[in-house]
Design brief:
By secondary structure, this protein is α/β, with parallel strands linked by helices. It has a single domain (4-264), classed as Rossmann fold (3-Layer(aba) Sandwich). 37% of the residues lie in helices and 12% in strands. Strand 2, helix 5 and strand 3 (165-171) form a beta-alpha-beta unit. The protein is globular, with a radius of gyration of 17 Å.
């Protein structure tokens, strides 16, 4: 069951998509509840001072899922929600992937997959060297962790005992063109991360209460980085898109499809 707040955030995403009738709906909907809990219940930040030096750092490594992050940042006051209606227009700061130099609240420009965790490891290691107390959180897609750079970064994180680093995996079991199990099987995923020196938890990535309870436990161990495997559904909240690879990205969304999206949020 999707509650009122999660529906409101999803509606912001649909409003963004309506401007140009395109976007990555599926990846945004699998991650939006995770982002909601991170920004509501875990991350320290100041929307009126995005570069506050004591803020926690959040990196959306799966940059194509940025519509969910745009919606949450607007909801939190980093920028006016109406600005999102310029999405993908020539004058807009809001493109199909997030850019740090343009958008308040964006810590890293992402889109080329496999970069977010290496960046996060660098941030977490720098914080440790400087005796700074902020946390670093990275959200990756499950297809993204096919990238070797993710596992190289994981080895480094464990070596340096980066307990200030937490990785969330949006585990919706689908890549852009098929099932993970058919393209490059990730299982046993939890055991892989344990073998790389991470403390591991698994959670329903759409269950708000479970997510809220879990973030209260972070860091999971005092001398290890953590990974939270979030079991999610691509396109969650829109019955016609749930678990469908064709809704990874749409470049031509019709009036009927758009109306159906809004109906799902009533």
């Amino acid at each position: 069951m999707i509650d009122k707040r999660s529906k409101e955030l999803r509606k912001i995403v649909v409003d963004i998509i309506a401007t140009e009738r395109r976007g990555h709906l599926g990846p945004a909907m699998s991650s939006i509840d995770i982002l909601r809990v991170l920004y509501d219940d875990f991350l320290n930040y100041r929307a009126d001072d995005p570069n506050w030096n004591k803020r926690d750092r959040f990196i959306l490594s799966k940059g194509h899922g940025c519509l969910s992050l745009y919606a949450v940042l607007a909801d939190k006051g980093f920028f006016p929600e109406k600005d999102l209606l310029t999405f993908c227009k020539s004058e807009s700061i809001f493109g199909g992937h997030p850019e740090r130099s343009k958008i308040p609240g964006i810590e890293a420009s992402t889109g080329a997959l496999g970069h977010g965790l290496p960046i996060g490891v660098g941030m977490a290691l720098a914080a440790k060297i400087r005796h700074e107390n902020h946390r670093v959180v990275v959200l990756v897609g499950d297809g993204e962790i096919n990238e070797g750079s993710v596992w190289e970064a994981a080895l480094s994180a464990a070596k340096h005992n980066l307990s200030n680093l937490t990785l969330f995996i949006d585990y919706n079991k689908l890549q852009s063109y098929g099932l993970n199990s058919e393209i490059l099987n990730l299982e046993p995923l939890a055991d892989k991360w344990k073998s790389f020196g991470f403390a591991v938890e698994e959670v329903d990535g759409h269950n708000i209460e479970e997510l809220q309870a879990l973030v209260k436990k972070i860091p999971l161990e005092n001398d290890s980085p953590a990974v939270v495997i979030c079991h999610t559904v691509k396109g969650k909240g829109f019955y016609f898109a749930e678990g469908k690879t064709e809704w990874h990205h749409k470049s031509k969304i019709t009036d009927d499809q758009l109306n159906e999206m809004y109906q799902c949020l009533c």
